[in-house]
Amino acid sequence: MHRLNSEALLKLTHHFAQCFAAPKSGGIVLLSSLVGFQGGSFAAHYVATKACVQSFAEGLAVELKPYNVLVFAVAPRPVRTSFEAKANINMNVPLNPNQISTPTLEALGKKRQYCQGVLQYC
Questions:
Q1: 110, 117, 121: which is closest to 29 by C-alpha?
Q2: How does DSSP assign 66-102, residue by residue?
């Protein structure tokens, strides 16, 4: 999980940040989670990777601003995907993917983060 949610994210973001910095244009959206702000038991490793994504996005947004590269973290509450069925879990009122994608794209360039769920201070 760490290799996917942290290491791979860092490598891919580094690659695309360089691609966008040269022409001074572009945007990077990183998928965090509400649990990245609050922690959680029985999923501590996952929660830690999402906190990493959130902190990374916030710092990178400042670093890439002089290059006109927008960096944005979206922190949704649970989203309906095939994971719910595969993990045999029941998410309470999950969001549909379009409930995240549309507001995220609308907020890109206007905010540094978008939270969809219980936390409203973002």
A1: 110
A2: GGTEEEEEEEES-B--THHHHTT---SSPBPTHHHHH
